[in-house]
């Protein structure tokens, strides 16, 4: 199967499993905003923000290293070697995680600390099994298990919040229940437990994987300062109420992440498989970047008026102030998605140090900008700093890629779409619902025209395949 066919097939699978499953949680937004007040939802969001950096630091993001090293083995059985060697690193991290959690419990009073700690454990286990499934090429299992786990999560939230009248603590519990279902489904297929052999343990491989993962871990910590740190600043310098508004605005930006994630996940596998092989490697990655950027920019243009249209139906009145935050949040999310796309190229080239360096500089910019602007702009400063930080991140990564593999970015594309995005934001903020409907129609027509070459190619391939089937 060609790279393009593999990419398209993987993207479709990830759309079915990853996007559709997580969209169900997006549609729970009316439930959350009706039954959970902004302060409590903001506290929950901040606790997850702290947890994300804690688990990344403790566990070295070892699941990424596991999947990358699995691609070094063509023999399906030998793919278990990096799994078990990576698992040793992860279980050592579990011990440290547990000790630190117990120590924290003696000195700091945190609401629902035990639930938060358990939540963190299952985040790591979910990543561990999910990346293994993808490393084996079991994308349908990955997608299907994610869908099943999310549905269980959603149903649990509905029961706990609506019928049992529980507070926001049920959000932790529901995630754990759904993740257990996902892990069980993946294990029945990949059989990580039953295939263990002591002969697979390799000290040199453990060290090699740890060296690969350490920059990714440091990158994740720096990445936290580029994203989740903003939530902490809002909670401390403003209130958890404003953090709740910021979290709800992020749900709409998350829609852009969901749609692009199916492409990014497929791209990660494709890039890891390609690595640094081939004389045309620069052209390969530049062409892929151009296509991805086209879809990302057009998607952003369409999403801005869509949010304006659906916002009143999705969000309760007490969260209405979050509407003004959404457009800038979308721009920051768009930049973060493209940054991740570039990061996967460095991961494929095993240049993880560059990922770390670019994120550190971007994090510093984010911190400086948010502290400079939060007094004047309030919660909006968090979205501005997010966007500026990711732009710096992208610039650094493009410079390094250009030196490494002669990588090129389509700057004409950015110059063409930027005024349209600004115009869409103006309509979103200052004009009527009818104007946003008109903007949406224009965005759709613009997307169809601008991507017509790719759309025609896809339709021609579908037509040829249909003819072959009929004959």
Report on the structure:
- It is found in: Cell membrane.
- The chain crosses the membrane at residues 12-33, 48-71, 83-104, 110-129, 141-163, 169-186, 206-226, 246-267, 291-314, 326-347, 354-374, 380-401, 413-431, 437-459.
- The protein has two domains: 36-217, no CATH class; 227-471, no CATH class.
- It has helices spanning 3-26, 29-35, 38-59, 62-70, 80-107, 113-135, 139-163, 169-190, 203-226, 229-237, 240-274, 281-314, 326-348, 352-377, 380-405, 411-430, 433-450, 452-470.
- With 471 residues, it is mainly α.
Percent range of helical residues: over 70%
| Alpha plus pi helix count | 18
Assign an overall shape: globular
Q: Largest sheet, described in full?
A: none
Tally of DSSP β-strands: 0
Strand content: under 5%
Task: Give descriptors for this structure.
single chain; 471 residues; mainly alpha; 18 helices; Polysaccharide biosynthesis protein; cell membrane; transmembrane helix; membrane
Blueprint of the fold:
Layout: H1 3-26, H2 29-35, H3 38-59, H4 62-70, H5 80-107, H6 113-135, H7 139-163, H8 169-190, H9 203-226, H10 229-237, H11 240-274, H12 281-314, H13 326-348, H14 352-377, H15 380-405, H16 411-430, H17 433-450, H18 452-470
Helix pairs in contact: 1-7, 1-11, 3-6, 3-9, 3-10, 3-11, 4-5, 4-6, 4-9, 5-6, 5-9, 6-8, 7-8, 9-14, 10-11, 10-14, 10-15, 11-12, 11-13, 12-13, 12-16, 12-17, 13-15, 14-15
Short structural description:
The chain is mainly alpha-helical and 471 residues long. Helices cover 84% and strands 0% of the residues.
